[in-house]
Write a structure and sequence with these properties.
InterPro entries: Biofilm_reg_signaling, EAL_dom, EAL_sf, GGDEF_dom, Nucleotide_cyclase, Rev_trsase/Diguanyl_cyclase
Largest sheet: 8 strands, mixed, barrel
Distance between the termini: 92 Å
Number of domains: 3
Mean pLDDT: 82
Structural class: alpha/beta
Number of strands: 18
Low-confidence stretches: 1-36, 38-42, 703-716
Strand content: 5-15%
Keywords: Membrane, Transmembrane, Transmembrane helix
Protein name: EAL domain-containing protein
Strand order of the largest sheet: 10-11-13-14-15-16-17-18
Helix content: 55-70%
Number of helices: 27
CATH architecture of the largest domain: Alpha-Beta Barrel
Pfam families: EAL, GGDEF
CATH class of the largest domain: Alpha Beta
Length: 716
């Protein structure tokens, strides 16, 4: 305020200040009545406040409510403003120049040459240069700071040009008759309109021009003494007010659009971050923290498919802890987990340029190597890894020696089949464990003999009597809410007269290789459906389909025929699919899934998180259930493991899918799953896979009064 002084944080009127000074002077001067000279009022704070307010008003984002509180939003607004006015300003300068030249032409013979030609000889080239400058600007190269600087400069330049043009027009109005003066009026009016439209995305500039032109124009014509011109001035003033209102409304709509786009971008970035985090968790082994099987095979596939120059060799090494199972059985899972974590930490030390490490599952680890990037022979490198992994691990008072064997396969060909390379490394590992325990075996022609054993397995499979040699065992799936068995998973068993008991992990891949899988699937499914007649109607069947079954329309059709002729309601049947099966031919798999679900059969994605593209398939396919892989269940004691399992449960809940936790082996795991909201569990704690007669004796099968604890099921 003009009559005030500042004292600290207070502003006191000058009269009160003077009185205070006088009173103090009276006291110090002994009451002699002398008053000190008043201090001059400081104007710097007032000027600073006015200057700050002016800077805020002239800010390009003036009028944007959230811009001040959100610098990122203000930056987006400035960039958007700059992008929009860059398209309009050249047209504005062109319109202004043409209108000014037309006005000068009508006054050419009436006004002095310096006024008609001289002034425009300066103003028109300035407008042309500015228009060319804006036209040639590359908006993509303008950042926020540059946009802010240019917008502020534009506001200042438009203010100066508006003063120049309206002043020139008012001086020119003194020459000529009624028509020429009417032309001046039209020039001013359409200039204001053009400025408002072309600068609507930069309101400070538009309002500054409108204010300058309107004040000068209205003052000039209202004081002219001509009633007609006064009326015209008032009409133009009213139209200007309306257009300013439209300008502000449009700018608010523009701001709302930018804010909506910013919010959408923020949500997309957050979704992308969550997806990346989910993918990271899905690629991470929950127990050890190193990359998992899914990551390894994805990297192996990408490396083998990528073009390579001659001499760029790819190698796969697989390492297995020889004595891990005895350690785990003797000292318990907790100690076993610590051994695996220590092994993963040791392996992680070898990761680097051209070397990727992963845990495949259990006590098995893998290393993917780009040999050209190593500083030593790949065999020596792998031997060093094995030596590091076999070193004793001290846990408490125990000194544990896990041992380690390895298998190495190298591919120097231009085209390398990833699964074949992995199988070769696996064959080499098998040879090490059988014949050279504690060593690393490099796959060679010698190991083809092992492949011949696989061929013998296929031959025995083709000659097998499916009805006599194959049986089905059933593993229960428990509903924790009802505390009763609601599903059983049918698992095939083969006892060969020549080979003895053969693991499904061996004979199922062999059946797929030799083309026996379709006949095997149909025969075992028919037997399982017959067995379902001996189970309570509220108990469903979960049955695994091979990848080749899924992509074969003929097999899918025959499966539907078997289900239709069994007398078992399709709603009791769930087919389990693996992500590998979906990877073979997604379109064919999707068509088969659609056919099965149309009959009421449910579809479950098995071993979720261990394949290639879990999130993608969950999103694209019509699934009913997801089965969490046992590797995640075993890692529930860790923070990462719990995070992964919680993420999967949240995903299922959001998508309306049932979720089955596999591999439940301890009461602690069961309690954690129950706390997470899991309803369906499967594992040795609930019950092992047993023949149908033993399954019927399970205490939680069709009981009217369920047992109080799950431990009873384990006893079965």
């Amino acid at each position: 305020m003009p009559d005030a002084r500042e004292y600290g944080d207070r502003v006191i009127p000058a009269r009160r200040q003077d009185a205070a000074h006088a009173e103090g002077a009276d006291r110090t001067a002994g009451g002699r009545g002398r008053r000190p000279r008043p201090r001059p009022v400081g104007t710097a704070p007032v000027i600073a406040r006015v200057s700050a307010g002016l800077r805020r008003w002239l800010s390009p984002t003036a009028g944007a409510p959230g811009a001040g509180a959100d610098p990122a939003l203000a930056a987006r607004i400035r960039i958007a403003q700059f992008t929009e006015i860059q398209k309009q300003i050249p047209a504005l300068y062109a319109c202004l120049s043409v209108n000014a030249l037309a006005l000068a032409a009508t006054h050419w013979s009436l006004a002095p040459v310096w006024l008609t030609a001289g002034v425009l000889a300066i103003l028109v080239p300035v407008c042309a240069l500015r228009a060319l400058h804006w036209y040639r600007l590359d908006v993509s190269r303008i950042d926020d700071a540059e946009a802010d600087r240019r917008l502020r400069r534009t506001i200042a330049i438009t203010g100066l040009l508006s003063v120049a043009f309206v002043g020139w027009a008012m001086v020119l109005d003194q020459y000529g008759g009624t028509f020429e003066r009417g032309h001046v009026t039209i020039f001013v009016a359409i200039t204001v309109i053009a400025c408002i439209f072309c600068l609507m995305h930069l309101p400070p500039a538009a309002l500054l021009i409108t204010g300058i032109v309107s004040v000068v124009f209205l003052s000039y014509y209202l004081l002219s003494g001509n009633a007609v011109f006064r009326a015209i001035a008032l009409n133009i003033a009213f139209v200007t007010i309306v257009m300013v209102r439209v300008l502000l409304n449009n700018f608010q709509s523009f701001l709302s659009l930018i804010e909506s786009q910013a919010a959408l971008i923020d949500k997309q970035e957050e979704m992308h971050r969550l997806v990346e985090e989910n993918l990271r968790l899905a690629h991470t082994d929950s127990l050890t923290g190193v990359p998992n099987r899914r990551y390894f095979f994805a990297e192996l596939d990408a490396l083998c498919r990528a073009p390579r120059a001659p001499g760029q060799v790819v190698a796969v090494a697989i390492f297995d802890l020889d004595r891990f199972k005895p350690i785990n059985d003797t000292y318990g899972h907790a100690v076993g987990d610590r051994v695996l974590i220590e092994a993963a930490d040791r392996l992680r030390a070898f990761a680097g340029d051209g070397v990727r490490v992963a845990r495949l599952g259990g006590d098995e680890f893998a290393v993917l190597i780009e040999v050209a990037r190593l500083d030593r022979p790949v065999a020596a490198f792998c031997a060093e890894i094995a030596a590091r992994l076999k070193r004793p691990v001290r846990i408490g008072e125990a000194r544990l020696a896990p041992g380690c064997s390895g298998g190495l396969a190298v591919c120097a060909e231009a085209e390398c089949e990833p699964h074949r390379l992995f199988e070769q490394a696996d064959h080499a590992l098998y040879f090490s464990k059988e014949h050279r325990r504690g060593m690393v075996t490099v796959y060679s022609k010698h190991h083809d003999d092992l492949i011949q054993d696989g061929h013998r397995l296929e031959a025995a499979l083709q000659a097998a009597d499916i009805e006599d040699e194959f049986t089905l065992h059933y593993q229960p799936i428990l509903d924790l809410s009802a505390r009763r068995i609601v599903l059983v998973e049918g698992l095939a068993r083969w006892t060969s007269p020549t080979l003895g008991d053969v693991s499904p992990a061996r004979f199922i891949p062999a059946a797929e290789r030799c083309g026996m899988i379709h006949a095997l699937t149909l025969a075992l499914l028919a037997r399982a459906l017959r067995d379902m007649r001996d189970l309570p109607p509220e108990v469903g069947l979960s049955f695994n389909l091979s990848s080749q079954d899924l992509i074969s329309p003929e097999t899918t059709s025959r499966i539907l025929d078997v289900v239709g002729g069994s007398g078992v309601a399709p709603e009791r049947l769930t087919f389990e699919l693996t992500e590998t099966a979906l990877m073979m031919d997604f379109d064919a798999a999707e068509a088969s899934i659609r056919s099965l679900r149309q009959r009421g059969i449910r579809i479950a994605l098995d071993d979720f998180g261990t394949g290639y593209s879990s999130l993608s398939y969950v999103h694209r396919l019509g699934l009913d259930k997801i089965k969490i892989d046992r590797s995640f269940t075993s890692g529930l004691g860790t923070r990462t493991g719990e995070s992964i399992v919680r993420t999967i449960f949240d995903l299922c809940a959001n998508l309306g899918l049932e979720c089955v936790a596999e591999g439940v082996e301890t009461d602690d795991q069961l309690d954690r799953l129950r706390n997470f909201g899991c309803h369906l569990v499967q594992g040795f704690l609930i019950g092992r896979a047993v023949p149908l007669p033993l399954l019927r004796d399970h205490p939680m099968l069709a009981r009217s009064e369920p047992p109080a604890t799950v431990a009873t099921g384990r006893a079965a």
